[in-house]
Write a structure and sequence with these properties.
With about 425 residues, the chain is an alpha/beta fold. The protein has helices at about 15-25, 75-90, 95, 110-120, 135-140, 155-175, 185-195, 205-215, 245-250, 290-300, 320-325, 365-370, 400-410; strands at about 5-10, 30, 40-45, 50, 65-70, 75, 95-100, 105, 200, 220, 260-265, 270, 280-285, 310-315, 315, 330-335, 345-355, 360, 375-380, 415-420, 425-430. The strands form five sheets. It has a ten-stranded mixed sheet with strand order 9-7-5-2-10-1-11-16-20-21, sandwiched between helices. Strands 15, 17, 18 and 19 form a four-stranded mixed sheet that branches. It binds guanosine-5'-diphosphate, 6-O-phosphoryl inosine monophosphate and magnesium ion. Magnesium ion binds near residues 13, 40 and 305.
Length: about 425
């Protein structure tokens, strides 16, 4: 397999876990490069579901080496819990996993700040996952973050924790008027990280370079999606890291020469969790209730893998996907959840936006402007046949094939993979 970066190109939850797990047997290494436990990547194998938040989605394949890069933010208790669940199921996680010494740690005070800020924002909240992601990346950028390597220097670690806790508790109690975080709570997490994560700590960039030199193929696994990218998403309703393929390099310590292809993963429709503009939205838990949107939510079982929140649903937005294809340098598409469209009499594609009476073809930089955009739709025929579980293109109804061709045209990118159900086996691969 070519060295491939797999990224979500909508608002997350596109099926990255499924696609990475599917491709992992062809890769020698699977490496996560950004995000943290805000991610929830679902793998279904023979009907059995595994949800991963921090472990790379290649972890269920015994010959695949898994790496967690410096660009990720790691919550030690989440990672340990995830490792223990898999270890109890007989998966030899620790033999094949390395965590970058430069990884930033998410500590309890990050979650407390995340929650306090969201409460304070009220109706203007971002709808974060509450996992402390934003505050952890802020600490990184402010140069006061705690990295895994810091656990090796007790004195310095103590000093940094004391200073961070002082500053955070000041904000929590004085500004947000909420409870402070106790030092003991942090020490417990650090102890866990020391005993369970330090043995797995390594120089991930050097490992990747060595494996690359010996000819290993590498799959780079992104989290979230391009529309949640800190720069190219619907700012400020975004996550706190860059989610584009370019982030794989800074998030692992490799150069662009190592990347040979970029797989952009998207659903055959659109979903979003949390707040922020969503031009093609049809259905949400706040009362928007278009029947086609409800069909997508119900058939697609659209509930967040991390938070369980209902996802907002809508038609495929080719303007957003085309934007994502460009900014992430996507060379091939993987379309997921085609089967969820089964039974719809018509399927719509948003091929442009109308803004103040003018047609536009790109995603505006300003979220409020995007919220004013009205989708311009093309309507295609739907189908009654069942595509769920289809394994070859000739099992697809003509209308489904027509939809895929039109998606390729309007997104200016070929479709290499089509997912027709949640299971690892439910896939069609197209020759490039
Ligand atoms: P990720 O965050 O991108 O890995 O995606 P999630 O795991 O959060 O959400 C995708 C959901 O869709 C999961 O429940 C998957 O099991 C499911 N899924 C993935 N591909 C397909 C598909 O082709 N069809 C159906 N029906 N479900 C799918
Ligand atoms: P995966 O990897 C979907 C969303 C949150 C919120 C915004 C900011 O499973 O696709 P954060 O907690 O990151 O500060 O929240 O980003 N979000 C996701 N939405 N899938 C994800 O990950 C997400 N990770 C964050 O809902 O709108
Ligand atoms: Mg997810």
């Amino acid at each position: 397999m070519k060295n491939t970066v797999a990224v979500g190109i909508q608002w997350g939850d596109e099926g990255k876990g499924k696609i990475v797990d599917l491709l992992a047997p062809e890769a020698d290494v699977v490496a996560r490069f950004q995000g943290g436990p805000n991610a929830g990547h679902t793998l279904v194998i023979g009907g059995r579901k595994t949800v991963l938040h921090l472990l790379p989605s290649g972890i269920l394949h015994e010959n695949t080496q898994c790496l967690i890069g410096n660009g990720t933010v790691v919550a030690p208790e989440t990672l340990v819990e995830e490792m223990d669940t898999l270890l109890a199921a007989g998966v030899p996680v620790t033999d094949r996993l390395s965590i970058s010494d430069r990884c930033q740690l998410i500590l309890p005070y990050h979650r407390a700040l995340d929650a306090a800020r969201e409460r304070a924002r009220g109706a203007g909240r971002i709808g974060t996952t509450g996992r402390g992601i934003g505050p952890a990346y802020e600490d990184k950028t402010a140069r006061r973050g705690i990295r895994l390597i810091d656990l090796c220097d007790e004195a310095l670690l103590n000093e940094k924790i004391a200073a961070n806790l002082d500053w955070t508790n000041f904000q929590l109690t004085q500004y947000f008027k909420t409870e402070p975080v106790a030092r003991a709570e942090i020490d417990a997490v650090l102890d866990l990280a020391r005993t369970r994560l330090l043995p797995l700590m390594d120089d991930v960039s050097s490992i990747l370079h060595a494996r690359h030199r010996e000819g290993a193929s590498i799959l780079f696994e992104g989290a979230q999606g391009v529309m949640l990218d800190l720069d190219f998403g619907t700012y400020p309703f975004v996550t706190s890291s860059n989610t584009v393929a370019g982030a794989a390099m800074a998030g692992l310590g490799v150069g662009p020469g190592m990347i040979e292809s970029v797989l952009g993963i998207c659903k055959a429709y659109t979903t979003r969790v949390g707040a922020g503009p969503f031009p093609t939205e049809l259905y949400n838990a706040d009362g928007l209730d278009d029947p086609a949107g409800r069909h997508l939510a119900e058939r697609g079982h659209e509930f967040g893998a991390t938070t369980g929140r209902p996802r907002r649903t809508g038609w495929f937005d080719a303007v957003a996907v085309r934007h994502a294809v460009r900014v992430a340098g996507v060379t091939e598409l993987a379309i997921t959840k085609l089967d969820v469209l089964d039974g719809l009499s018509a399927v719509k594609l948003c091929v442009g936006y109308e803004l103040d009476g003018e047609r536009i073809e790109t995603v505006p930089a300003d979220a409020r402007t995007l919220a004013r955009c009205i989708p311009v739709y093309e309507t295609l025929a739907g189908w009654d046949e069942r595509t769920l579980g289809a394994r070859s293109a000739d099992q697809l109804p003509a209308a489904a094939r027509a939809l895929l061709s039109r998606i390729e045209e309007v997104c200016e990118c070929p479709v290499a993979l089509l997912s027709t159900g949640p299971d690892r086996e439910h896939v069609i691969r197209f020759a490039s």
